[in-house]
Design brief:
Elements: H1 2-17, H2 27-37, H3 43-52
């Protein structure tokens, strides 16, 4: 139930912040919020991608 509420809240947040996108949330952004909810720190992965490019 909590995951459904989180997805709903994220979609409302997306509509408020990005009204022209019509509720389309990137899979990467939703994955980031899912990881943050599980207390996984995305910083090492972001740094690896930055240094590889």
């Amino acid at each position: 139930m909590k995951k459904k509420v989180d997805v709903f809240a994220l979609s409302i947040y997306g509509l408020v912040i990005f009204p022209k996108v019509l509720g389309h949330i990137n899979d990467t952004v939703s994955g980031l919020f899912d990881r943050l909810d599980k207390r996984v720190m995305p910083i090492p992965g972001i740094l690896v991608e930055t240094f590889r490019s």
